[in-house]
Amino acid sequence: MEQPFNISVSQNTLDSLAQKLAVATLPAPAPVTYTDSALDSEDWTYGVPRPTLERLLIHWRTSFLPRWQEHQAALNALPQFTRSIEVDGHGVFTAHYVHKQSTHNPKGAIPLLFLHGWPGHFNEVSKLLPFLTTPPANAGYPSFHVVAPSLPGFGFSSAPTKTGFAMAQYAEFAHKLMLSLGYNEYVVQGGDWGCFIAHRLAYLYGPKHVKAWHTNMPAGRQPTFTRHPLLYLQHAITPYSAKEKKAVQRMQQLRNEGRGYFAIQSTMPQTLSYALADSPVGLLAWIYEKLVKWTDAYEWGDDEVLTWISVYLFSTSGPETTLRIYYETVHQGNFDEFAKLWSPIPLGLSFFPCEFIDGPRTWARTMGNVVFESDHDKGGHFAAYEQPQALVDDLRQMFGKGGKAYGVVKGKDGY
Amino acid sequence: MAGHLDTLAKKLALATLPCPAPTTYTDSEDAQDWTYGVPRTTLERLVHYWRTSLLPNWREHEQTLNALPQFTRSIEVDGHGVFTAHYVHKKSEDRRRNAIPLLFLHGWPGHFNEASKLLPLLTAPPASSDYPAFDVVVPSLPGFGFSSAPTKTGFALPQYAEFAHKLMLSLGYDEYVVQGGDWGRHIGLGLAYTYPKHVRAWHTNYPRSAGPPQLLRNPLLWLQHLVTPYSAAERKGLDRMQFFTNEGTGYSAIQATMPQTLSYALTDSPVGLLAWIYEKLVFWSDAYDWGDDEVLQWVSIYLFSASGPATSARIYYEIKHSGRSKELINIWSPVPLGLSYFPKELTPVPKTWARTVGNVVFEADHDKGGHFAAHEVPHALADDLRKMFGKGGKAYGVVKGKDGY
């Protein structure tokens, strides 16, 4: 039974947060790496710089938290609901989701499932929604019904309690949610974990239910001669473009310096959980580092950052349950399956310059039946949030009239 | 310190614990399921004990820690300024002896107090025995315990070695021997390599190497390695190493890349710090029966340390980013070396591998003991040092005029 949902953080929780912030202890600043003075707050070499975090902490205590009701109301501007979804072998979950339909085109709008990742959340869809559900009249753009769930363990969905909840289970959860909303056929958009889950959805439930998918995090694997002979050849003879070289370099840098969170979250998430569950400041730093490092010079406002962190802090099962997706997926060997679990349904790729790209385009094309590709000059990992217009343009091109995935959903072409 | 204690009490009172990890056993009530990390039931018990027993009785525990004779002095490290060096300095009880100066080096998440059980065995051997006596120096490494922390980037192995070496010189020990595990082993090798005129021998309970012997670098060992099958114990050790590499190095990955990001959580949350360190105390030891007071005293040294609990993590960052340090970790030194093999060490290596870093004059095998040998099995470690440095030992009399008798 669907229930409308509003985020409503209890006064107890808010008081406890205020008390913790009041006794928050900050670490010493990191060693100086610049020959310049130690006061450079933008030296991110060792991680989030202390002056930056301190400023955010003060803002949290003195401005953001006292005005929490405003920020909560802003989050509640999105229409949210909960309902029960059962996942085989894992019991019944409370699924929390945004569901916004196209009001002027209820029958013909394309059902679109939007999947977040880590440290993302349902609210990443917020800037896309108006464009997708209510495009300007007579502009020739398709309209969509959008469903943006909190993945199990994230936001206001409940968390798995048994080991083994990995890609197939997240896919099942999302798929059953769409079916329960009456969307027997739908398309999927995802980045980060949303990309891997979308890939699995395509494999498990396409082409019968999942008709096409799109990602802003083209991951892919090196083409092998046996699996992707054409791509393999193409990769062998095509030199990397300047953009691709830059992307590969960036990926290398990330691999060397930016994978610590991945290593701990995929091996001992519970050990890390104590610190993140107990320290709002610790949680802020842990996530904020990604918001800055993974975006393309996006100008984060303090309220924006703290609202983002709050979705983690106030989540139903605590911020720590979000870590386990790394543990489960790695231990099931899911990352190696891109090459094997291939789906023929149409796939669209958007390339943003500050995303982590594993390799050149030929690698990304191993992910599926690529019918759409686009290149951008600006944008990073959180494309829907940083570059909503660009992402919307891509979806319009892919799914709109003349697009390669036009009309994939029977009777719902968006017009 | 009073301010610290009040803040700690407040934080413990407000502590929020995470929900339990997913069940991996069919029996969901198993509190000992460490698959995802420290189990909630265990941590909850420790936090409760901290609030209701250890913290109210803190002065007793502080006194216990203060039973070791501790000092501070200034030590300058080239290019990094002057440090406050905090150290234990315990001389041989019997002052007539020509005690061997021994530098004991801890690692992470270790600290100066790891030597506490070892000290009496080294500084006060039974008079009737034929064991040598030592003067022992146990510093807190910069960034740990009550030493000050580096403020400039690039404080890596050569700097830790320089710090320790200058401390020994300043205490009047021109020649000395070294014992170390974890980072202490790496710093020990760095010392042996850099100051061979001063470091007359060294010993480690953490035999490490980059890998098997290489034909060009260690031809004899390479041959030996080729023809000698691994013993059952060595195979078990390799399995353990595999497990550690696959499941146990997350902490090192984050500490070696973004230690500052991690430090906010560990500095602000005593509970988070407890879990972060306690996991190692359990995983890295050989079924050692940790008492609650023991664990919390251990973590308190981190919590109350001079530069905060998380500055210690930076040693991982600095060593990873210093090419010279990586070189030093596997370099060969002619200084006499003793190796003690404990079965539950993190990366138990076969003997032919371990021998690639030095002039091995002593080896000992053990059936019990893990990473924190000095704390877990102090008698076993003391025995090894006595055999190595005592009369008849291969490193007997290495320090001129100070043979321990």
TrEMBL record, chain A:
The active site is at D192, Y326, H381. GO terms for molecular function: epoxide hydrolase activity. The keyword Hydrolase applies. SUPFAM superfamilies: alpha/beta-Hydrolases (SSF53474). InterPro entries: AB_hydrolase_fold (IPR029058), Epox_hydrolase-like (IPR000639), Epoxide_hydro_N (IPR010497), Epoxide_hydrolase (IPR016292). The keyword Hydrolase applies. Keywords: Aromatic hydrocarbons catabolism, Hydrolase. GO terms for biological process: epoxide metabolic process. Residues 3-125 form the Epoxide hydrolase N-terminal domain. PANTHER family: EPOXIDE HYDROLASE, EPOXIDE HYDROLASE 1-RELATED. Belongs to the peptidase S33 family. This is Epoxide hydrolase N-terminal domain-containing protein. It comes from Hermanssonia centrifuga.
From TrEMBL, chain B:
It comes from the Eukaryota. Residues 4-114 form the Epoxide hydrolase N-terminal domain. Signal peptide: none annotated. InterPro entries: AB_hydrolase_fold, Epox_hydrolase-like, Epoxide_hydro_N, Epoxide_hydrolase. GO terms for biological process: epoxide metabolic process. Pfam families: EHN. Keywords: Aromatic hydrocarbons catabolism, Hydrolase. It comes from Hermanssonia centrifuga. This is Epoxide hydrolase N-terminal domain-containing protein. Belongs to the peptidase S33 family. GO terms for molecular function: epoxide hydrolase activity. The active site is at D182 (nucleophile), Y316 (proton donor), H371 (proton acceptor).
